[in-house]
Amino acid sequence: MTKSSFDLFKSFAGELDPRTLQKKFLLSLLKLQNVHRGSIWIKKNNSYHCIEAAGKESDSIIEIDIDADQPSIVGWVIENGKRTVADTKSDGRHFRELEDNMAVKSSLILCFPLFLKEKEVYGAVQIIDTTPEKSCVNLDEDYLNYLQNLVDIGSVALSNAILYSRQVKEAESLKITLKELQKRSSLIGHSKSFQQCINLARNYANSDLHVLITGESGTGKELIANEIHRLGHRSKKPFLVQNCSAIPKTLLESELFGYRKGAFSGAVRDKKGLFEAADGGTVFLDEIGDMPFNIQAAILRVLQNNEIKPVGANEIIHVDVRIIAATNRDIKTMIGENRFRQDLFYRLSVLPLELPPLRERREDIPIMVKHFLKQESLRSGQPEKKLKPDAMQRLTTWSWPGNVRELENLIKYLMVAIDSEYIDAEDIPDHFFEGSVHDIHASSPLSESGDMEDRVHSRSSDFQSSKAYYYNGNINVPEIDRRKGGINFGNFSWQEVEEQYIHFTLHKNNWNVTWAAKDAGVNRSTFASRMRRLGISRSNLPQKA
Ligand SMILES: Nc1ncnc2c1ncn2[C@@H]1O[C@H](COP(=O)(O)OP(=O)(O)OP(=O)(O)O)[C@@H](O)[C@H]1O
After folding, report:
1. 435-439-445 Cα angle (round to 5)
2. pLDDT on residue 77
3. Burial grade of 423 (CB within 10 A; 0-12, 13-18, 19 or more)
4. Across residues 227-239, what is the average pLDDT?
5. CATH topology of domain 3-165
6. Most ligand 1 atoms within 8 A of CB, residue of 184, 214, 405 to mutate
7. Was domain 362-540 assigned CATH 1.10.8.60?
8. CA 227 to centroid of ligand 1, rounded, Å
9. Which residue has a Cα nearest atom 26 of ligand 1?
10. CA torsion sign, 485 to 490 to 494 to 498?
11. What is the pLDDT at residue 68?
């Protein structure tokens, strides 16, 4: 192997920067052919773009495009995937204008295609003889085959380097975006009760005491724990999460505290636990109410002495972690039932924070809906959808037993299932409203333009005082119990209640749909579409006996 071909291989092996690699690649090839002028071209949309050139006056062609419609040697090689030798005086493929401003013109061009791994051509490399005798370039067939092999290896190396540098750039821009996102809070909500929680979280972030967050499932306990970590001095260290309920007791212990090799069958090497891995940072213990009693004692040791003992270890390890725990259980009752250690509770609840359920901060629903619609549109690349007022009204009157998580999931569903840009109340699936109807007469921020359910509520005195549902003039009397915080419709599903209400209103208005809709407080088309969906029409009524 000659020194030049050795240099060529070296340039392929060691270089990841495409600009440096393409330069070295071209210069080595030119050396192997004893010439000074050459260029590398790649296919770009409808043209061929010069990414590298060497030799006198070569600067004038770097970054130049040759239109794909123009005859050119690089174009021919790229399109045919074959090398060629062209006498520039007689070859019709030669694009002469390129050399208009050059004092020395080319006399012979040897051009090789550049292949990707899959044999797809992505460019071409030109080796140019400028001597009138065309005597520099070695056109021996064996030598050209040898060069083609080198070019093949070089072109794969070059395409890999281009891909690598693109990925590096992409990763860098993702890192910047991530850093920006980490600086921002992802907590949404402007209601007074939620803002109080955020203020409390900000104050707690300035302290290093442990925190106990309570609240129903899906209210954002993990998110607020993350916020406390993000705003505190531990923010550059890990925030690690362990759900204490989703995992068997023995596994939970080794996840939290780690284990030593041989501690149990399968422990083939030492493993660090969450507390060690989070050293300097925060451990979020979700569902702490479900933590087994004996592990509670080990957690107490972390809280009191900053100590852990891995499973199977003889020694104690010191850790520096802040614990934020969360539960949706009534811990005080659990203490009374000896299911939760009182000392642990007192240690954990130095800084308590209670998150209100979504139904108690309904004014946050519209802004959350907008946030999740935007988030889903960014995630999926779909255009952002909007909720029509009647759809929004429907959401603000629902009790949200699954809290923010349930709302987020509904938005995910709507983004996928609904094609149109605007979401109607009818698009919201019935199962979100079936079963028990919670809190139906809780106040709604949109009650001015209320939807059907709201009407059920606002007309409920009328509807309930009769303690009767009308059906074809006959009266059915289901049990309606008032319970704390809402109306219990017994075993009736939402759909049945809705059906009864529509029948009731129609019957009252002598089956005049316009009057019935007016009576229900919704527009005629909404009322009629609901009738259609529920299959209600006068002709469908069962005949009186
Ligand atoms: N205020 C909020 N702003 C934006 N998103 C929120 C908010 N609250 C909750 N979420 C979202 O709702 C979902 C549930 O939140 P999170 O897991 O923090 O609730 P949780 O109370 O810890 O639930 P669980 O008790 O089931 O563990 C997450 O996707 C979270 O991003």
Report:
1. 125
2. 96
3. buried
4. 95
5. Beta-Lactamase (3.30.450)
6. 405
7. yes
8. 12
9. 217
10. negative
11. 94
Whether 470 shows a pLDDT value over 80: the answer reads: no
d(CA 262, CA 311): 10
Residues 52 and 369: their CA atoms lie apart, in Å, by: 51
Q: What average pLDDT does range 116-139 have in this prediction?
A: 90
- Average pLDDT, whole number, for the chain? 84
Provide the token pair at 293: 């009693």
The span from the CA of 223 to the CA of 188, in Å, is: 10
Going by pLDDT thresholds of 50, 70 and 90, the confidence category of residue 432 is low
Residue 242's DSSP bridge partners are: 285
Where do the structural domains in the chain lie, given as residue ranges?
Answer: 3-165, 192-356, 362-540
Q: What is the pLDDT of residue 501?
A: 80
Alpha-carbon gap, residue 352 to 444, rounded angstroms: 29
- Counting atoms of ligand 1 from 1, which one is nearest the CA of 189? 1
Find the residues whose C-beta lies inside 6 A of ligand 1: 186-189, 215, 217-223, 286, 326, 328, 404-405, 408
ipTM of predicted assembly, 2 dp:
0.98
What are residue 454's phi and psi, to 5 degrees?
Answer: -65, -40
The pLDDT value recorded for residue 444 is 35
More confident residue, 361 or 483: 361
Q: For residue 83, which of 19, 139, 26 has the smallest C-alpha distance?
A: 139
Amino acid identity at 246: A
Expressed in angstroms and rounded, the spacing between residue 225 Cα and the centre of ligand 1 is: 10
pLDDT tens per residue across span 48-97: 999 999 998 888 899 999 999 999 999 999 999 999 999 999 999 999 99
Q: Can you tell me the mean pLDDT for 472-486?
A: 34
- Positive or negative torsion for Cα 216, 218, 221, 222: positive
In the three-class reduction of DSSP (H, G, I as helix; E, B as strand; rest coil), residue 345 is classed as helix
Residue of 404, 406, 410, 411 to test ligand 1 pocket, by largest number of atoms within 8 Å of CB = 404
Query: Would you place residue 520 in the very low, low, confident or very high pLDDT band (cuts 50, 70, 90)?
Result: confident
Residue 459 scores a pLDDT above 60: no
Q: To 10 degrees, what angle do helices 141-183 and 18-32 make? A: 170
Fold (topology level) of 192-356:
Rossmann fold (3.40.50)
Tokens 């333009």 belong to residue: 449
> 343 is written with which tokens?
């000392």
Q: How far apart are CA 32 and CA 138, in angstroms?
A: 9
Q: Is 217 helix (H, G, I), strand (E, B) or coil?
A: coil
Tokens linked to 473:
């003039």
End-to-end Cα, the chain, rounded Å: 105
Q: The tokens of 210 are what?
A: 């442990």
Residue 461, number of CB atoms within 10 A of its CB: 9
Per-residue tokens: 83: 């090398």
Look up residue 267 and give its amino acid.
A
Model pTM?
0.57
Other beta carbons within 10 angstroms of residue 240's beta carbon come to 18
